[in-house]
């Protein structure tokens, strides 16, 4: 049974602790601005750099309601802390998780880790390192740099958060801690099906949009693109069902259409990566789904998903070489 006095005491303690956001990119900076303006103590830490001097940046978030949210952010590194005394939020690229699971080991002291990244099985490294509290958020928003100090932010809807390893009480407390009016989170009991729904949506968006060099609204505006999305979604169902994930193609398609409409004009994160000559997260999207299908002998069902993933990776690699 829930001990209310103890819960309230721990909630108050967590409210007073800082929040550490790892990954000073579009999502990390957007969240840091909203939390700072809501009065939380926030440390934004570089994900790809372990040790460097602290810097200060004024960031402006342009929201969908045309309001501007401005805050000064302090940006440091993991080496500045021997211990992280509060909630740790991962807003770095998921391919950095293996190395981060090693540099974060021993620094969390039982504090929760909240993963804000796209992809399937991205929590694996932290599970292997026996992190006690791992929570996963499915991001339903877009953040895009307009210039180095301005980010255009379009939320789609509340971002669900569920337990990978941990407990309900900690989840409730951490949601309370990171909730703001502009960057909304909600508690979710079935996080695995939402992860799969989003990953399949990402397989469609994060390959087709970069390959066409077009914004997210294409599926909402164009019938041919919409039909392609439907075909790709249907092709993922055999794998999802074989993995015990109870989702329907209609669920995923509606998700794609909602994201497409709400983020019309924004570029998908993978296209932003390619345009900035950065590596992509394809290995945790199309390539991971194709790998899982191969593993259980149904690789043929994922041929198109795999090919789109490989083409997107190739486009990113060519762009990296042409820097
Ligand atoms: N932008 C968007 O609209 C959306 C993004 N997402 C997801 O959110 C996550 C963050 O994306 P976003 O903010 O757009 O990405 P950005 O590239 O803007 O920022 C990610 C940050 O990750 C860090 N990073 C890069 N490489 C490594 C590495 N090898 N090891 C550790 N850290 C690394 C860098 O941090 P630093 O500079 O601090 O070193 C970088 O600033 C991704 O998983 C993305 O898929 C999901 C939905 C929408
Ligand atoms: C599909 C979308 C826009 C939703 O948040 C996304 O995940 C991305 O930009 O990578």
Automatic annotation (TrEMBL):
EC number: 1.1.1.169
Keyword vocabulary terms for this entry: Membrane, Transmembrane, Transmembrane helix
Positions of the Ketopantoate reductase N-terminal domain: 19-154
Catalytic activity: (R)-pantoate + NADP(+) = 2-dehydropantoate + NADPH + H(+)
A single cellular component GO annotation: cytoplasm
Transmembrane segments: 20-38
Gene3D superfamilies on file: N-(1-d-carboxylethyl)-l-norvaline Dehydrogenase, domain 2 (1.10.1040.10), NAD(P)-binding Rossmann-like Domain (3.40.50.720)
GO molecular function ontology, one term from the record: 2-dehydropantoate 2-reductase activity
InterPro entries linked to this entry: 6-PGluconate_DH-like_C_sf, 6PGD_dom2, KPA_reductase, KPR-Related, KPR_N
Pfam families attached to this UniProt entry: ApbA, ApbA_C
SUPFAM superfamilies tied to this protein: 6-phosphogluconate dehydrogenase C-terminal domain-like
Limits of the Ketopantoate reductase C-terminal domain: 191-302
UniProt pathway annotation: Cofactor biosynthesis; (R)-pantothenate biosynthesis; (R)-pantoate from 3-methyl-2-oxobutanoate: step 2/2
Protein name, entry field: 2-dehydropantoate 2-reductase
Lineage: Bacteria, Pseudomonadati, Bacteroidota, Chitinophagia, Chitinophagales
